[in-house]
Write a structure and sequence with these properties.
Distance between the termini of chain A: 134 Å
Number of helices of chain B: 15
Largest sheet of chain B: 2 strands, antiparallel
Low-confidence stretches of chain B: 196-202
Low-confidence stretches of chain A: none
Radius of gyration of chain A: 33 Å
Order of helices and strands of chain B: HHHHHHHEHEHHHHHHH
Mean pLDDT of chain A: 91
Largest interface: A-B, 63 and 39 residues
Structural class of chain A: alpha/beta
Helix content of chain B: 55-70%
Number of strands of chain A: 17
Strand content of chain A: 15-25%
Number of domains of chain A: 2
Strand content of chain B: under 5%
CATH class of the largest domain in chain A: Alpha Beta
Structural class of chain B: mainly alpha
Strand order of the largest sheet of chain B: 1-2
Oligomer: heterotrimer
Chains: A alpha/beta, B mainly alpha, C mainly alpha
Number of domains of chain B: 2
Mean pLDDT of chain B: 88
Amino acid sequence: MSIVDKIFKFNGGIKTDTRKTVSTSHPIKKISMPKKLILPLRQHVGRVAKLKVNLGEKVLKGQLIAEADGNVSAAIHAPTSGIIVSVEKQSIPHPSGLPDYCVTLIPDGKDTWIKKDPVNWKKIGREETIKKIYSSGIVGLGGATFPSHLKLHNNNNEIKTLVVNAAECEPYITCDDMLMREKSVDLIEGIRLVLHLLGAENAIIGIEDNKPEAIEKLTVLVKKDEHISIKVVPTIYPSGDAKRLIYLLTGTQIAKGKRSAEYGIQMFNVATIVALYNFINLGEPSISRIITITGNVTAPNNYEVLFGTPLSDLIVDAGGVIKKSSSFIMGGPMMGFKLPSVNVPVTKAMNCVINAGSEMVENNSPVLPCIRCARCADACPVTLQPQELFWFSQSNQFEKAENYNLFDCIECGCCSYVCPSNIPLVQYYRYAKSEIIGERHAKEEADIARERNDFRLHRLQREKEERAKKVAERKANTSSDEKSKVIDEKRKAITEALERIKNEEVSEK
Amino acid sequence: MINQQSPFIQKSSSVTSIMLLVILALIPGLVFYVHYFGVGVLLNLVAASITAILAEYLVLKIRKLPPKVYLYDGSALVAAWLLALSIPSIAPWWIIVVGTLFTIVIAKHFYGGLGSNIFNPAMIGYAVLLISFPALMTKWPSPIENSLSLESIGQAFQIFFYGLEVVGDGLTSATPLDYVKTELLQGQILPDISIASISTSTNLTSTQIVSLGYLLGGVGLLYKKIISWHLPVTYLLSLAFISGFFHFVDPNNFSSVTFHLLNGGTILCAFFILTDPVSGPTTPKGKLWFAFMVAILVYVIRVFGGYPEGIAFAVIFMNICVPLIDNLTQPKVFGHD
Amino acid sequence: MLTSVLIVLFLALIIGSILGFSSIKFKVEGDPIIDKIDSILPQTQCGQCSYPGCKPYATAIAKGEADINQCPPGGDDGVRRLAELLGVEYKPLNEEHGNTKPKSIAVIDESTCIGCTLCIQACPVDAILGAAKHMHTIIEKECTGCELCLPPCPVDCIDMVALQENTENWKWKYPVFSIKNQKQRVSP
């Protein structure tokens, strides 16, 4: 094990009560088979998966339900055996609260696996293995849900370092921590596998110092491996953000709009690595994940849950809710969002659900004007000027906001967290960003419409000209000498013929 | 609350608590002030506070803003206190009232209220008073023995309500800055000007001890992270450097570093006036430039200008430059070159 | 007296010649203002402004023949931007030209369509596919929602359907909150 000690600190960040111990006192639990599974067709970044089953079809556990549509997409598999009963719009975990297309599967209770197909990666080579992973449905399980096969492909960039994201910096969330404690062997084996697939030399596990048990377990395992090192970083939110963690560990700042692969670095979350390991080693596609249920529930804990499980079932398994709080937050309290209802299914992105008390979801303190105290700028991990961004966003001066690098903002929420005036800064940035993106989109559409209109006008003009040309040609031809000659000749022939007839008539008489 | 979004947790700090801590940090200096110069300053503070709260309440009513929320933020009170501490404690009540009204109504609310004023409200109030009533504004109290005796308290009340005339001019003296400046203008050289004539029995003059009281409060604010180090440290270092340079070149005509740092409003300015977030710069580099430029201006006005103290004008002038400073000192964004 | 008159005359001469020189030297070719106006217009090509399309309307604005508030699809926002670009006073949308509606697209009821091609000829952006006596259909992505295909249809088989918000085109809304609440928020 090589020891690299230097930690590169980024600007700002916040220290807060992490509330992680609430959900780490018991091992990961499994829950009973739910009565139905709801599988949204888009659980990843990219294009909607293409449906591959029919209504009423019987499927086996691990069978393909929808395949990846193009490169930036991911497949969806049946989490258990059962019957497909509907494909329709249903409530999904999305900040908009809008429904989307989902497949509903009624489990038959037998949980019969389809024939598993483990990949002999040592034999078939890198390219083939990555091709297999394309159909595994594995996406980034840290919450970003970026299809994993794309990251393994790395587009001709030579990858030197694999950064393993084990920071888990958001308060409340402990699913990665528990995974590392219980599946540390799988994780290390998985890291070796991913190192091989990337062709990378070494791996650095970045982990926050509030997970001593996991650190201890992993340290023992990598003691004799000189390719894998562990770097313990201080618990400062948002150290788990991809670019922040890469900087913390390697000192490389990834510029806006660039991928870390261009710098020879690729990052995977620990849960994603374990999922990849399970797919290659056991032939099991992505059908379940570990999720933290915490907050105002009777038994906060981590659960291994099949995708599609209705959240309501999960809450029942966690002993129900304390008090009557019906607000659920998906993800952490810093970057998560309020779920539209408790009836949404568990998806690949769902790492944590917090049953939130009213103190979290009802902000009753008054919002005062910005006093430019710049505490937000001190807390910003991207070194932006949040007070300026706020000023321009709230007055709809989007161009200026962009000049102040609005799109570098990672919406981590540090600025809102520290604001003494209680201003919901991130809400303004989200609004401004989505307006700008909408505007760009409208502009693109307008440009296409303009082009098509121009084209049509040109076409009409051309058609008009061509028609005019034809008419003119016809006219010109009729008045030409040649034509009149022909006509004269014909007339002559006619008069001659008439005369002949006359003559004949005369001679007959 | 509609459409609640993340983050769902927040640090328990508020504008109110910041303002309260600022007021708390003024207390040590205030205690020394009362000890050496009598309770007049307390009367000023009370008058300023009452005027500020009433004015704020009325303006908020007129502007149809909820007074409950905005009065509670405490910003009016801080501005009023800073003004009251800047003007002589032997000023009559109406000076305080006029100054506070100007601070709250014109310098603060005419520009849009909390968060929108481009100038430091207390300094605007001070500058207006200084220009309008120069005679009253340059008369400072002499240190008094037994400041808490019934006699001196009674005297303070008399001055507060009826003006200095009723008790006679015996109580006033020029401030050290003023005194030295006048003497220098009359052709004296520094070693001959007896600082002792305006000091108490201790080595430090009473004004200097008041300054040290403010310093104590300021360090407390730094410790509580209410203010950042950039402004006060740069300001004090710059002022020390400039005055040190001139003193080194010509000790006969230019006062020493300690004289400049501990007299007048230097310390109060460094920790309480420069650090007004609303009218000041926001970027770390910008704060360095701002404080440096204020230090230069203060020194120039003190030594070469027409006024013995130049803080108000220096701060107001630099307030105008804040947008430019902020614009030119944007820090490097993560991942940018 | 005479000297001051001479000085002013001299100055006028110099400044005048500088202006004259620069107007020749830095002459701007073409009229980019039309393109700038056109880039603000939504390119619906609906003709509600009483001009045959967005470009002709842009040209008319540039010439000062048309007002800036005649484009309902561009809406209030569009008028504001035009006002800013041209440095004129904002004015509310002229209702004679219609009201702003949420963006919608045309949908052909394919069971009623008789394949007359009249709508194809009316469409300003060639967004309708089909041939004579064959059912027509609208390319959803290209439709600008100009409604020009509605009047020519002899069987009224075209409907305007407002675009639905979905998870892809959904936007975060402007934050709304009350400044009057006074209860303190609990810290973590």
